[in-house]
Write a structure and sequence with these properties.
Layout: E1 15-17, H1 19-32, E2 35-39, E3 50-53, E4 63-69, E5 78-83, H2 84-90, E6 93-101, E7 115-123, H3 126-131
Parallel strand pairs: 1-6, 2-5
Antiparallel strand pairs: 2-3, 4-5, 6-7
Protein name: UDP-glucose 4-epimerase
């Protein structure tokens, strides 16, 4: 898994990248500059993590920052944002961003590559649940 920056108070990150996702994020970052992810609560492609140049997707009070992903080879961390109402359902999980063959959301940077990002999740361990920061 790609390294993530610790949350305030040394709490574990809620999000990680698989090695394949980290390689793709690094390549996209080299091409497009600083990046961000956003996961909405939409249906179909809207429920997949979407990758954008940082700032191209506007976040607001209805979004929470879950992680700042440190990707080897990129100078700036990649923020992972989620719609707050979606986080209410996922608050007990650790998310891993992976990449698989196939077309995903047309607005996400990986779409022309013939691959798409997706989320793999697992429940937080008891220790992670005790120490996880709840984004506000």
């Amino acid at each position: 898994m790609a390294a993530t920056r610790a949350r305030p108070g040394g709490a574990p990150s809620r999000v990680a990248l698989t090695p394949a996702a980290a390689r793709l994020v690094r390549r996209l970052g080299e091409e497009h500059g600083p990046l961000m992810f956003h996961q909405s609560g939409g249906c179909c492609d809207g429920s997949s993590p979407m990758c954008f140049p940082r700032g191209e997707f506007r976040t607001g009070s209805s979004d929470v920052l879950l992680a700042e992903l440190a990707v080897e080879g990129l100078e700036e961390p990649v923020g992972f944002w989620m719609a707050a109402d979606q986080f209410a359902y996922w608050r007990h999980t650790h998310l891993t961003v992976d990449v698989v063959p196939g077309r995903g959301g047309g607005f996400s940077l990986e779409a022309p590559e013939g691959v798409r990002f997706l989320i793999r999740s697992r429940l937080l361990t008891d220790e992670e649940a005790r120490t996880a920061v709840v984004p506000g």
